[in-house]
Amino acid sequence: MYMEGAGSGGVVESSVLAAGSTAVTAWLPYRRPGGRPEIRLLCFPHAGGAASAFRSWGKHLSPEIEVCAVQLPGRETRLQEEPHREMAPLLDALTRDLAPLFDEPFALFGHSLGGLIAFELARRLAGERRVLPARLFVSAFRAPHLPNRLGPFAHLPDDAFAAAMRDLGTTPDEVFDSPELLEIVLPILRADFTLAERYAFDDDTPLDCDISVLGGTEDALVLPEELMAWSRHTRRRCATCLFPGGHFYVDSARVSVLQTIRPALTSGAAKRFGAP
Known about the structure:
The chain is of the alpha/beta class.
C-alpha cells in the first residue's frame, strides 16, 4: 500500500577515471559495466551486511538500470580492511572513490543502516558536488531526525553484544551457532552499530529529490510513522510503500520490491539529474 506525504556535472577527465578505477572496483566488486545504462542504482546493505545482498538484483531489473552493489570495508571482498565507525570518514571515502559514477544519472538505495548512509551521501553530494540522485530509496530505517529506540548496544562485551544481536533478529541464527563465523561477523556488527549510535542529525535542509520509503508491515524495529516522517527531508515527493514481512522483507518480498523500484527508475520523473 502507498501512503504519500508532501515534503517540505560535468565530464570526468579520462585520467581521473583511470586513477579511480581500482578504488571503484573495491567498492563495487560485482559490477560488470557494459553498454550505456540510463541510470545507475547504488545499493547499500544493512548493518553487518555486504554487497552480495544485492548481487542478483540486476537480473530482475531492466537492462537500462545498472545495479552497483556497494561493498563497505571490513566484509567479504574487503575483509582485511578496517570497517568505518564514524559517518564522516565513510562519506569522505565514498565521495572520493566513487566520483566517476556521479557524473551520469544515478539513484541510491539503502536498507536499514544502508538507508542512513545513502541519505547522508545524497546530502554530501548535494553540498559538495552540487549534484543529486535522481531518486533516494530508503528501506527499513526511521527518519534521521527521530531518536534511536534500539540501543545502545555497541559498548557491550562480546557475549552481551552477541545476545543483543540475536534478540534483534537481524542476523541469521547460524552466525551465532558457529564460533568461527561469529568471530568474523561480530566486529563488523559492532562497527556498524557504533556508526549508527554515534550518528547525530545536524542539518534540517531538505533534499531536492524524490524519496521512496520502503518497509515491512511486520517490522518491529521500525514503525510506520517513523517511515512516513521521511517526508520532512525532501522538497519534492515522498511516498511510502509497505510490503508483507519483517525487517528483511527485501528478501522475502524481493520480486514485489523490485517491481516497485523498476518503474520509479525508468520513468521520466526519475531522469531529473544535476544541480539542486
